[in-house]
Amino acid sequence: MTTPVNAAGRLDRLPMGAFQWRILSLIGLGMFFDGFDNQMAAGVLGALVKEGWSNMETNAHYISITFAGLAIGALMTGLVGDRFGRRFAYQFNLLIFGSMCLLSMLAPSMTWLMAMRFFMGVGIGAEYVCGYGMVSEFVPPQRRGWALGLISVVSMASTFAVNFTGLFVIPALGWRPMYLIGGCGALWVWFLRRKLPESPRWLEARGRYEEAEKIMQDIEAEASKAGPLPPVISVAAPAPAWVPISILFSRGVVTRTLLAMAVCITCLVGSYSFSYWVPTFFVKQGLSVTKSLSFATVMALGSSLGPLVGMLTSDWIGRRRGTMFAALWCGVFALAYSQQTDPAWVLIFGFLLQGGMSLMIGFTMRC
């Protein structure tokens, strides 16, 4: 087959149905365990300090290694996805961080734990990019902002889930079972996603029209069970072409690239630094591991608040104004949090700050 498939026009006119919900469920599960495996570092690092396995300096190295892996994973997944397909990239990164998470449970020293954390970070960083990208590939534009917000809610709910799990698991069984839980969860999702379809948009862009047409027919056949489908909108498929990464720094684009980099660096470094270090700081202040994890768990509830606000407002106020609002929220409550000494107000402003940071991540990653 050599005729263009019009995958974009055919996908974008489909109503939300069972197919899109299945895609969202599989993406959401992957993003949940991606966040779980990422954020488990907070409770684990606090426990490692308490046990004498680590100290503040070594924890800083662990966190730096994580960021290095996240950056490499986010960069490489786009190249891998464009070369080998969205589905391959999505499954490969999940396999990386799931298997590395399981192996971390057996780490004989902090050096080995940090080495495996680097590779785990590569997979975790790739999952974020792939997850939001897959939603944009399959969900129609009129529901895309809402769907991306929903995925953010599920992803950020993992912050509370991992803190809540650690509150019971770490004091009773130690930090190693946390890696067992995270690794098994990630590999379970990898198994569920083995039949995830390749993106027809990508296949068509690569000139693989027969494969794209077959997948489109399957999707449309499933969607038509709910009723007649809307008429097809003709969208001209772009000619396959190699676009070098240097285009991001060309005239007319470079200002947007630098702005996007500044916003992403600010919100991600701020969010991860806060969530990673809070339990360790509490332990160093003399709190028990149980009490420090209790504080972190309460504040982590805010991580679900922000994406929920984003899901309900993103299609109304837009991504740009949403990002500005989230940045203002973060600035106000970060300043307020830094001035608190009373435990009750530390929890309240920590909760609101976590909400603002998760909201900003949601808007920033989707702009």
TrEMBL record:
It is found in: Membrane. Gene3D superfamilies: MFS general substrate transporter like domains. Keywords: Membrane, Transmembrane, Transmembrane helix. Residues 23-367 form the Major facilitator superfamily (MFS) profile domain. Pfam families: MFS_1. It is a multi-pass membrane protein. The chain crosses the membrane at residues 23-48, 60-80, 92-112, 118-135, 147-170, 176-192, 258-278, 293-310, 322-338, 344-365. The keyword Transmembrane helix applies. PROSITE patterns: MFS (PS50850), SUGAR_TRANSPORT_1 (PS00216). PANTHER family: CARBOXYLIC ACID TRANSPORTER PROTEIN HOMOLOG (PTHR23508:SF10). This is MFS transporter. It comes from Bradyrhizobium brasilense. The lineage of its organism: Bacteria, Pseudomonadati, Pseudomonadota, Alphaproteobacteria, Hyphomicrobiales.
